[in-house]
Specification:
Strand content: 15-25%
CATH class of one domain: Alpha Beta
Oligomer: single chain
Radius of gyration: 34 Å
Helix content: 25-40%
Structural class: alpha/beta
CATH topology of one domain: Translation Initiation Factor IF3
Shape: elongated
Number of helices: 6
Length: 239
């Protein structure tokens, strides 16, 4: 049986929640099945329950019946505060979007080292919050004639100062209007143990350690002597 689309009529129970509606969830009267696998407000699994009984229980608790898994039969539904859940989901999406914003910082050719350090300190704060950076190097008057020499050298120097926490995604080679620009993205943090393999310590005699026998299992010497066949003693040849 084909499930109805998640459109649903906004009833008195749903009214006010439609602006927070999450597409993958059906709630309350939008759930049009005879039975549901119910999880109550305390998180207890109640098994198969008639839909009208589940709706009545949610209504009595002042909560919503939310379809959390609609790809099974019967669908799994949970009694919960849907408005709160939808609001938190929306807030989370907004936070993820805001962390990917690009922050612009402008420099001039005559900027002092102190001002550079101040601006780069702010740039580092943006990167730590997950933002990308756009460095704009503004050139004025005769500075434009040296854009591809002095200008690019200055821009590369600024990018280099951020190389420990960012990677350049794009860098202009020619002027765009009255500026050169570079776009920097936060560098991915190295996962512990993902670097180069450390060399194994050498054995006491200075030779590289040998791989243990028997599939990597260390066998005590006395056990090895008991199970391995004794080597025949060399026979002396009589002349």
């Amino acid at each position: 049986m084909t499930r109805p689309m998640n459109i649903g009529i906004v009833t008195g129970r749903n009214r006010g929640k439609e602006k927070f509606q999450i597409a993958e969830h059906r709630i309350n009267r939008q759930i049009r099945v005879r039975e549901v696998m119910l999880i109550d407000a305390q998180g207890n699994k109640r098994g198969e329950v008639p839909i009208q009984e589940a709706l009545a229980e949610a209504e009595e608790a002042g909560l919503d019946l939310v379809e959390v898994a609609g790809n099974v039969t019967p669908p799994v539904c949970k009694i919960m505060d849907y408005g709160k859940m939808a609001y938190q989901a929306k807030k989370k999406r907004t936070h993820v979007k805001s962390t990917s914003e690009m922050k612009e910082i402008s420099f001039s050719m005559k900027i002092s080292e102190h001002d550079i350090d101040t601006k780069l300190k702010k740039a580092r704060e943006f990167v730590e919050k997950g933002h990308k950076l756009r460095f704009n190097l503004i050139l004025r008057g005769r500075e434009r004639a040296y854009a591809e020499t002095n200008g690019l050298n200055q821009l590369r120097r600024l990018v280099e100062k951020m190389s420990d926490i960012t990677v350049p995604e794009q860098m202009s080679q020619h002027m765009l209007g009255n500026r050169l620009f570079a776009i920097l993205a936060p560098a991915k943090k190295k996962v512990a143990g993902s670097g180069e393999a450390k060399p194994k310590p050498a054995s006491p005699n200075g030779e590289p350690p040998k791989a243990p026998a028997s599939g990597g299992i260390q066998i005590p010497a006395e056990v090895r002597a008991a199970v391995e066949p004794a080597k025949p003693e060399p026979v002396e040849q009589q002349g």
